[in-house]
Amino acid sequence: MKTDLASLDYGSLQAFVKENGLPEYRAQQIFRWISRGVFSFDEMTDISKPLRETLSEKAYLPVLTTEKKLISSDGTVKYLFTLSDGEHIETVLMNYEHGNSVCISSQVGCRMNCAFCASSLRGLKRCLTAGEMLAQVAAVNKEYGVSSVVVMGIGEPMDNYENLLVFLENLSDPRGLAMSLRHVSVSTCGIVPKINELAKKKMQLTLSVSLHAPDDETRNRIMPVNRKWNIETLISACRHYAEETKRRISFEYTLIKDVNDTPKHAEALAKLLHGMLAHVNLIPVNYVSERGFYPSSPESVRSFYDILQSRGVTVTVRRTLGSDINAACGQLRHKTESD
Ligand code: SAH
After folding, report:
1. CB 193 within 8 A of CB 213
2. DSSP assignment of 47-75, as one string?
3. Is the CB of 226 under 6 A from ligand 1?
4. Which of 170, 173, 174, 254 has its Cα between 20 and 30 A from that of 182?
5. From the CB of 283, is ligand 1 less than 6 Å away?
6. Euclidean distance between CA atoms 140 and 313, whole angstroms
7. What would be the CATH architecture of the domain defined by 72-338?
């Protein structure tokens, strides 16, 4: 069996190099090339040809082939990548004033089945390897430069927890991309045991929680995960996480017309988050035809925002980026595979 070198943490890469009778600095060279976004040993020009051949007999690297690349009028770039086994994932580059942010996928498909989301329309195919997650960042970084990463694309990162941890370690390793975890966000629909495990690690990353409803009745309707870990369980894990890490939690709240966007929901949300180190991001839902949920009107968004703000909740309304290129949440992959 060949070894996937991009999915090893640095210590394991060192062990691989040693087992193959190579000097330690080879691990450093390989690690650096992977972080620079190369997909084959042949591109590692400071490694001799015979050694590159030996490496490719024993090991491999993930390959991301750009199937489509769409550029939005607002500058958002969306990649549809094909993986070595023919599966597709999406990666999105967003331009903000403070720099480029890349949104990566963590799984091929998803099994969480949120009612408004396109990513789980075909279920979960497989988890991405740590190397495939890193390769998305490295590829976009190579082309545009990237200053922050959000794990908010296709998939549920906490449902791919072990690989996520290796990815985060490699992403922040000073010998590679050296990205500070302060510039990384990981978004979850609320897998409570993993939130608790992550809290113990006291990482500096931003935990983003897709809440989307302040009460179990509404949340059960749109997020099946809530039947396993309800709002009370989730919020107490979030409070614990914020206390342990001293990091503010970011709550995502997608506003869906007539489902979760009434003043009553806003009041309940303010009450739920009272006194917590938290920030709320409001975003009108992106319409997905198979799902049939419509975005709230600008007036409802405004009044939802005003209520939260008047109750002392830190809140922003997120701009919708790249809507002209199907940039939202699994829409492009789904569309491509349905065509
Ligand atoms: N599984 C993780 C991360 C991927 S989804 C999570 O649930 O957080 C990234 C974000 O996009 C989540 O907040 C998700 O609820 C939201 N989302 C999914 N489909 C959407 C849609 N159609 N419109 C707006 N937001 C959506």
Report:
1. no
2. S-HHHHHHHHHHEE----EEEEEEE-TTS
3. no
4. 254
5. yes
6. 35
7. Alpha-Beta Barrel (3.20)
Average pLDDT, the chain: 95
Task: Delimit the domains of the chain by residue range.
Answer: 3-60, 72-338
For residue 214, what is the DSSP state? S
pLDDT, position 324: 72
Q: Are 89 and 105 in contact (CB under 8 A)?
A: yes
Mean pLDDT confidence for 288-302: 94
Q: Find tokens 């089945």 and name the residue.
A: 113
Residues in the chain: 339
Q: Percent of the chain beyond pLDDT 70?
A: 96
Maximum pairwise Cα distance, the chain: 68
In angstroms, what is the span from residue 324 Cα to ligand 1's centroid? Answer: 18
Best probe residue, ligand 1, of 94, 117, 158, 280 (max atoms within 8 Å of C-beta): 117
- Angle of helix 25-35 relative to helix 130-144, nearest 10 degrees? 70
User: How many Å apart are CA 141 and CA 129, to the nearest integer?
Assistant: 19
Q: Kindly report whether the global pTM for this prediction surpasses the value 0.85.
A: yes
Give the pair of three-digit tokens for residue 35.
């972080």
280 lines ligand 1 (CB under 6 A): no
Annotated active-site positions, please?
A: 90, 329
Query: What CATH number is given for 3-60 in this structure?
Result: 1.10.150.530
Residue with CA at minimum distance from ligand 1 atom 9: 152
